[in-house]
Design brief:
- By secondary structure, this protein is α/β, with parallel strands linked by helices.
- It has one domain: Glycosidases (TIM Barrel, Alpha-Beta Barrel).
- The protein is built from twelve helices and 13 strands.
- The chain has helices at 3-7, 52-56, 64-74, 102-117, 135-145, 160-174, 209-225, 259-263, 277-280, 286-308, 328-347, 380-401, and strands at 29-31, 34-37, 40-42, 44-48, 79-83, 94-96, 99-100, 121-125, 191-195, 230-232, 271-275, 312-317, 352-357.
- The strands form three sheets. Strands 10-9-8-5-4-13-12-11 form an eight-stranded parallel sheet.
- Helix 5 packs across helix 6 (160-174).
- Mean pLDDT is 93; it is low at 1-15.
Length: 405
């Protein structure tokens, strides 16, 4: 389709990308508020799929990974965000500090090798703020099991023992030699970026100092072990004390993060925001939720271009089928609005470099559902909307590359 047509956003809802994703042999870099590959700007359209490693480690469900990747690649998506953690519990990657389940690790090996086959980049998150799959609560419990006294789960960020456990996990992941590809994770360009944690919060210290210090330390740890990959924090985007006026854009509360100061740390390469108005503006009208979305994205785009000076990824957003008033049409409208804001920013040299919605699931995964899942084969209108965005992003990548050759 002609570039002029795509750049004006006139792709029909039923269009599918004519491109075939190719696995990159080059690491993604940044230049100010842009992601770069081979010296050319790179924009992304993708999705979350937290379940990939767990499903891949089970021979009876393993094929769901290539099935999902095949569908995503067909729709032109080029990046996937997923978990590289599962701490204790019934499907552990890390059974106890420094002790790993090889079957689960082989599942992650498979995810990475399949992503490469389907031309998809991966963002791997290394820990959870929440209790699902263990998270910081499990790290704190491990320390207590060894006789250390910790007051609460927020001491995950400040306690020497839990920080040591986390650093050991980072080393184990980065130094892992993939049993399928033979390539160490830290040397594999299929991995687009590491993420310190999924949605870190420290509400026992709203000054932000505890998290600021932890991010400083751990982003430095990643860079000391791996000079190739980008590092992101995994934050939702809540504002803190560095620019108090910005707190007006928070959804009425703070979580101990500071979007601006956290993301200006030298070893953090890009910023992320998450977006759940159906939870954060609970009980608000559709208009109130839409207004929140507009202000949340706009304020972070402004900050990333003028203050943080790093790319922004809208790393999670979704609409739950469990929320009141849900329809597929409402979900599509919500997705389309965010897709359009991301695309318009990218087209006009803004800071937004892509989106990864929450979340894709393969068919037959009803027991994994959280209300936000999109089964691409069963959601043709949503799939067409995603394809339209992928086509626009693909053409934008081609268009922008003309000016850097």
């Amino acid at each position: 389709m002609p570039e002029s047509v795509i750049l004006n956003g006139d792709c029909k809802a039923t269009c599918y990308p004519s491109i075939v994703n190719k696995a990159s042999s080059t690491f993604v870099e940044t230049m100010e508020h842009h992601f770069m590959v081979d010296g050319k700007p790179m924009y992304f359209n993708g999705f979350n799929a937290y379940w990939l490693m767990c499903v891949a480690a089970d021979p009876s469900t393993k094929t769901k990974v290539p099935d999902a990747f095949k569908q995503a690649s067909k729709l032109g998506m080029n990046v996937v965000r997923t978990w590289a953690f599962s701490d204790a519990g019934n499907k552990p990657l890390q059974i106890s500090p420094g002790v790993y389940n090889e079957d689960m690790f082989k599942g992650l090996d498979f995810v990475i090798s399949e992503a490469k086959k389907h031309g998809l980049h991966l963002i791997l998150s290394l820990c959870n703020n929440w209790d699902d799959f263990g998270g910081r609560k499990q790290y704190v419990q491990w320390a207590r099991d060894q006789g250390h006294y910790l007051n609460n789960d927020d001491e995950f960020f400040s306690n020497e023992v839990t920080r040591g456990y986390y650093k050991n996990h980072v080393k184990s992941i980065l130094n892992r030699l993939n049993t399928i590809t033979g390539v160490a994770y830290k040397d594999d360009p299929t991995i687009f970026a590491w993420e310190l944690m999924n949605e870190p919060r420290c509400q026992n210290d709203l000054s932000g100092k505890t998290l600021q210090d932890w991010i400083e330390e751990m982003s430095g740890e990643f860079k000391s072990l791996d000079k190739n990959h980008l590092v992101g924090i995994g934050e939702e985007g809540f504002y803190g004390e560095s620019i108090p006026d910005r707190k007006q854009y928070n959804p009425g509360y703070e979580v101990g993060t500071d979007f601006v100061s956290n993301n200006t740390i030298n070893n953090v390469d890009f910023a992320t925001i998450h977006l759940y108005p159906d939870q954060w503006v609970s009980g608000g009208s559709a208009e109130a939720q839409a207004e929140f979305v507009q202000k949340w994205i706009t304020s972070h785009l402004e900050d990333c271009k003028t203050i943080v000076k790093k790319p922004l990824l809208i790393a999670e957003f979704g609409k739950s089928s469990w929320s009141s008033g849900y329809t597929i049409e409402a979900r599509n409208a919500y997705f389309e609005n965010i897709f359009n804001m991301a695309y318009e920013s990218a087209k006009k040299d803004g800071a937004c470099s892509g989106t990864t919605f929450w979340q894709v699931m393969a068919q037959g995964m009803e027991n994994w559902g959280d209300g936000y899942q999109v089964v691409l084969e069963e959601s043709p209108t949503t799939a067409a909307l995603i394809a339209k965005q992928s086509q626009k992003i693909s053409e934008l990548n081609k268009y922008k590359s003309l000016f850097t050759e």
